[in-house]
Structure formats: structure tokens, C-alpha cells
Fold this protein.
Amino acid sequence: MRESAAERHDRLLELVRRHGTARVSDLAGLLGVSPVTARRDAEALAAKGLLDRVHGSVSWPAAASVPGGRSDAPVLGLLAPSATYYFAEVIRGAHEAAAKAGARLILRISDYRPEEDRARVDGLLAAGARGLLVAPGWRRPQDPAEYGEWPARLPVPAVLLERQPAPGTALDGLDRVCSDHAYGTLLAVRHLVGLGHGAPVLVARADSPTALSVRAGYAAALGSLGLDAPRAAIDSVPAELDPEGFEAAVRDLCAAVAQGATAALVHNDVDAIQIVQRLAELGVRVPDDLAVVAYDDEVAALADTPLTAVAPPKREVGRHAAELLVERLRGDAADESPRRHLTLLPRLRVRASCGAGTESAGTASAGASFDHSINRS
């Protein structure tokens, strides 16, 4: 498999970190690339402040690229599965907290390929990270067991982001900050029931930890409210990647409406918007025929009929995690102090898709970017 530029950059950084200083021509031979490619890589890394470059050589920064040259300020590494959609806000919160603490945040993206997470983290360490914020790129239920051991053996302090490992595992002993998706799902179900609807139909992804938590939270919410699911959950898929699967999901939801369902909870926003558009083409009106609550609240406010949505506190997750990591690095939270599992509660933002005329629970953020092909969380 051809090596990516990011992987080559990580190898280059590790070589310079190990030797302190190296000629670019020597690095070309060690990396197995042309001198032109090595020079361009060195220039790109120097422009980011990861290397010092002088007269054909590169060297490891004396102060580890700390803003303002402060040698006591930490460099934080962040591994995220995506820099768009849901995780854009998590990253923004972490960046703001790091900057406020006088630290520098460097980022690697796994693109939801958990088998590459460890290599990305090695790149962060090679780039000078003294502590790590880690959101593994898990997608399947078995991924935590298959790829969940290495974060517990990291040589630097680490905080998990938006991931809840199984109790009793090594990963469960790390600091972590995450959203309580079970609580968020309960908010949605309780809201719909409070409006006079029966148990909503669940339309949900199954390709991310958030999706799996929403599914589990839905069952728990129905149990706590003494309700039975009107039917099995409908599997949601991206319309762009699987048009036939998407159409089948919409048709299943139409059939549920024909059988008496009056409400639905849909994960995620992009799917919800596209489902509502297709429902209208098939003669099912929102909210007249079906009340809809979306989960994530990234772009729900931008739908033709603004969607009521559960809003996990994504930015605050990033902010609290970075603050905790800085504490660990500066000794404010000693190694012998208890690890922390901080769980933040989502909010419900009420809009027109459940019959409300205006928002009544805060203003949703519509500024985060998203990618239709990987809008997971």
C-alpha cells in the first residue's frame, strides 16, 4: 500500500527527533524518497513550526514548538476520527482550551480507520506531544476489543474523548470526557411522549460509538418510561453511499406511519434532513403526519422545517478534556490522584419539526462543517 504524506511526515519527524539534526539529503535516503520530496516535506513541517530548518538541514525545535518560545508550556496531541461534522466542535473546544492554557495543540485524523490509530498517535509523539487527547476511530461493536488496548499503555498522560470503553478493561482506567448519549436519547423520547405521541420509531446509524450509544439509550429510555418499541429500529445509511439502502429505510418509515406511528428519532442530522425531504415527496408531512427529532444538532436548524434535535455538548467535551490534560502535565493533578470520568449532559433544542413554531431551548450552532460521506460521530 502506498505511503501517505502524513505517514511520511511522521517518519521524518521521528528521524529528526531521534538524531536532533539531519541533512535533508540524508533524510531522503532514509525515507526512500527523492531529494525534492524530502525538501518539500521539511519545508511543510518547518512552516507548521514542527522543525527548524537552516541551510539544507533540519533540527528538532529546542522548545518543542511552544507558542512564544516558552519551554514550560505543553504540546498536546489530539487524535480524532474526523475533523468535520461532529468532531469539528470537539476539536475547536480543545484548541480554545489549549490556547488559553498557553499550550499548543497538534492534530492527526484517522478517518475512522481504527487499525491506523496507533500509527497516528506515534506521529503525534514524534512531533513532540507530551500528552494526548484520544478519540479512537471505532466503527463496529467489536472495534474496542480489537483495537482498545494500546491507549492504556501510552508513555504520556492521555484523556479519552467521546468514547466509553467496557467496564473493567484497561482503557476504562484512563481519564475520559464524553457526552451522555443515553440521557440525550431519553430527552428526545420524553419530549415526544410529552407531546402526546406514542413511543417513537428509531431510525439510526450503526457505524460509530455515538450511533451505538443512541441505540442502547433508546432501549433504556423506553424501559424507563414503560413503553414498548413500535417496531424494530430502522437501519439508517448515507443516501450518497447507499441510495438503495437509504430508500429502503425511508419506505420502512413510511410503512410505520401507515401503521400508526406518529413520531421518529433519527440519528444523525444529515440523514434526518434527507429523510424528511424524501418523506415529503412520498406524501408524509413533517410535523403534520410525523414528528421528528434528530440527534447531533450539527445542521438540524438548517432544514426546510427546522428540526428539533438533541445537542451533545461537543465543544465543552473538547474544552474539559484539554483542561484536564494540561492539569496532568503541569502536576496540578498528581499521578496518584484519582482518574476522572466526566460525563456531560446533552440539551434538547426544540424547533418546528415537532410542531413548535420557534426554537425554545437555545440557539443551535450551524457553523460547523460536515462531510456527507463520513458524517459519523
User: Anything to note?
Assistant: The chain has three domains: 5-59, 73-179+317-344, 181-313+346-374. The mean pLDDT is 87. Residues 5-59 form a domain with the Arc Repressor Mutant, subunit A fold (CATH 1.10.10.10). The CA atoms of residues 27 and 38 lie 7 Å apart.
